[in-house]
Write a structure and sequence with these properties.
Blueprint: H1 7-15, H2 30-45, E1 49-52, E2 57-60, E3 69-73, E4 77-80, E5 92-100, E6 103-112, E7 114-118, E8 125-130, E9 145-152, E10 155-158, E11 192-195, E12 201-206, E13 211-219, E14 222-229, E15 238-244, E16 247-255, E17 263-267, H3 273-277, E18 283-288, E19 291-297, H4 301-309
Antiparallel strand pairs: 1-4, 2-3, 3-5, 5-6, 7-8, 8-9, 9-10, 11-12, 12-13, 13-14, 14-17, 15-16, 15-18, 16-17, 18-19
């Protein structure tokens, strides 16, 4: 089955052009370079081949002092051949480096399952998220727990903590053997119908956990699902499972020829998956090789998926 001809534009639509390239070169302060080198060395120590994706380093003036600060997220580090080596229970190291009069300080370091940064808030707010098994004493819901942190000066302070208590940097925990998914960060994602030159339209959305992007598109007469992953899966068969109330649908995935190492696809020619994704369910849990990744939103999916796959799939 040929799949390469539609990929360049499809990848741009899925990831804004970041899937097949590393982050742009920038001048990083010594503490960030040292942390990056340590992570690369750790990946190689597990037999992996490290490469930075666009989301590995997030930069911007976070504390308002006019100097660029940096957030380093291992979720953006592709450790090919040892994808889970750097994460404890799939909770991956997140580090925040803030500038100050004496240089840069690592103000926050912790393993998290997901995170987001609200730059519009004043001061900026960092939200970290964990699965229930990693919540400790934090209040939790069925999906897990979260903590919100404000950024000021060279401190990252948890919202609701006692006055004057800043978050002390912690060493990210080493890899552990337990396997857990990440919380359903994709629950609020929306589906979009995007044109693919010469191939009609693709139904696209963002995904939870290690699935950064998810798309359904016709590749000639065959419907395929395209997964843009935050890390390349380990060697061996990889199966993405959709746990619908009516039954589980397994979709074995394989590397997409001619695409970046983190872009995989599934042939849906004989699958009920498109029909169920375009059905009446609001969400569906997503698993990879049995590890829960979170919840995929299906809000607004029906019309988008039916339109995208109309030329190649019978609903």
């Amino acid at each position: 089955m040929r799949t390469t001809s539609i990929m360049p534009l499809l990848l741009l639509l899925l990831t804004g052009g970041a899937a097949a390239q590393s982050p742009p070169r920038q001048t990083l302060p010594p503490p960030v370079i040292a942390a990056q080198n340590e992570l690369f060395a750790e990946c190689r120590g597990y037999g992996g081949r490290p490469s930075a994706m666009a989301e590995f380093i997030t930069s911007g003036d976070l504390n308002g002092d006019g100097t660029t600060d940096h957030i380093l997220s291992v979720q953006g580090l592709n450790c090919e051949g040892a994808a889970s080596a750097l994460c404890a229970g799939q909770a991956c190291p997140l580090q925040v480096f803030l500038s100050g009069p004496s240089g840069f300080r690592r103000a926050y370091a912790e393993n998290v399952h997901a995170w987001e940064l609200d730059r519009a808030a004043s001061p900026p707010v960092l939200t970290a998220m964990w699965l229930p098994s990693h919540c400790g004493q934090r209040p939790r819901t069925r999906d897990g727990c979260r903590a919100r942190y404000t950024i000021a000066g060279q401190s990252v302070t948890e919202v609701g903590a006692r006055a004057g208590a800043a978050t002390a940097p912690q060493e990210p925990q080493p890899r552990q053997q337990q396997q857990a998914g990440v919380p359903g960060a994709g629950a609020a994602a929306t589906w979009q119908l995007r044109p693919v030159q010469g191939r009609g339209n693709a139904a696209m959305t963002t995904g939870p956990g290690v699935v950064a992007g998810f798309a359904l598109v016709c590749n000639g007469p065959a419907p395929i699902a395209v997964f843009t992953l935050r890390a390349r899966p380990p060697a061996g068969q990889t199966v993405v499972a959709f746990a619908f109330p009516s039954g589980r649908i397994d979709a074995p995935i394989a590397p997409l020829q001619g695409a970046a190492p983190n872009v995989w696809y599934a042939d849906l020619s004989a699958s009920r998956l498109p029909r169920l994704l375009a059905g009446n369910d609001a969400t569906v849990p997503l698993l990879i090789n049995g590890g829960r990744q979170g919840t995929l939103s299906l809000t607004g999916s029906t019309a988008v998926i039916r339109s995208a796959l109309a030329p190649c799939y019978r609903f």
